[in-house]
Amino acid sequence: MNLPKNKQEKVWLIEKSKALRPYLERGPVSAFFLGISSGFPFALVGATLTTRLAQDGISKGAITAFALTFLAYNFKFLWAPFVDSVKLPFISRYGQRRSWLWVVSFLLVLAIIFLGSADPSRTISRVVVAAITVGILGATLDIIIDAYRIELLEPHQLGIGSGMSQYGWRIGAASTGALALIVAGKYGWFIAYFSSAFFVLPAILVGFISGEPKRPNESIRAKSPFTALFEYFHPLVEFITRKGAWLVLLFVLIHKIGDTLANLTLRILFNDLGFTNEEIALFDVGFGFFAFLIGIFIGGILYTRMGLKDSVLISLVLMAVSNFSFSVLAVVGPFNWVMAAAVCFENLASGIGGVTVVAYLSALCHLRFTATQYALLSALASIAGRFLSGTTSGGLIESMGYFNFYLLTTVLALPGVFLFWYMIRSGLADFSIRDQFNK
């Protein structure tokens, strides 16, 4: 039976409201604002600091060495048990998660102000200390926020809450990067960093409004140091004993090297080509942000239509080719439309890979050890590129020029593409995940 047009519209509105309702619940909304505060320190020690150092005339080798600051995010799992179990004096009566959240947030604000006050042209060592401090505190805030979010969300909210957190992270990082560039152009870098520190407020307010999340009362204690050591490393042992695991780990290690090398040097390229802070904020942060969101949407379609393995292979090819677009920009020069095209292509490819490759890494994790194995895999996926970028990329740019450097990053991405193609042909691409889908 056909309904009248006005009743059809009412039914449509009701269905839409039901679909949107889960996104408006307290848990997912809190996860979104927690994500904003989680993303902004990463931007301040990344692209924002790179731009500032380049504008102050710091050498390319010294600038790219700051990429080592990101290693704190790779090794945060080493001190996560400390954050998880140690109670802070005096303030712990407000709860384990909230007390750590507020104290680390306060220390992070001080570290950001310290970083903003450091003048790279006078005391580069002070900038190094400040950047490392912001990196460590930002990674620690990530530990707290991840735990707070997971414990705050109900089981049926985990999917939506995780997605809201990712959107919040991207918005926090992009907004901080754009704000810092615009404010720095008018009022200087100290005011830029000081104003960016306010992005920690969303997480602080979530702590006040949402309260302390529920946690199990009992604590798990190992019977002996040997047992504790075995239980800690058991998730890794479980993974590396699978057939073909070492080849899979090699792929995880090398597939992002070219992409990471390129991304961590883009702000140096933009500065040397003569783009202003406002232009970088508009094209790299603004256009790039929306291109990334479109890439996420396309990645979801590819994953649904083509399956896991083929969609991953396509995203790897796109991410490799996107690096070459910056070789083109280096040759053409400071044309806004060329920069916009290169940035949008790179973010589009990254968005697609952010869905497909992350889905593959997630599928590799055993259901019993998802958190630990994904933390280790994600650390392995970026640690090589960040280490190489921090130790070699500046010297490579100075010796071979931008065109050849970004051509090199394209070539470095190809082994990961061919290795995954071989893994598909040999069956190793899905062998490690086969048991989990059959259970």
Rounded radius of gyration (Å): 23 Å
| CATH T-level fold name of the largest domain | Growth Hormone, Chain: A
Order of helices and strands: HHHHHHHHHHHHHHHHHHHH
- According to DSSP, the number of beta strands is 0
Q: Report the top-level CATH class of the largest domain.
A: Mainly Alpha
User: What portion of the residues fall into strands of 2 or more residues?
Assistant: under 5%
Distance separating the two termini: 43 Å
Main sheet attributes: strand count, strand direction, barrel closure: none
Question: What's the CATH superfamily of the largest domain, by name?
Answer: MFS general substrate transporter like domains
Regions with pLDDT < 50 over 5+ consecutive residues?
Answer: 218-225, 434-439
Specify the overall morphology.
Answer: globular
Structural class: mainly alpha
Q: How many domains is the backbone divided into?
A: 2
Helix content: over 70%
Q: Which whole number gives the mean pLDDT?
A: 79
Our count of helices gives 20
CATH architecture of the largest domain: Up-down Bundle
Write up this protein.
With 439 residues, this protein is mostly helical. It folds into two domains: 26-214, MFS general substrate transporter like domains (Growth Hormone, Chain: A, Up-down Bundle), CATH 1.20.1250; 224-439, MFS general substrate transporter like domains (Growth Hormone, Chain: A, Up-down Bundle). It has 20 helices and no strands.
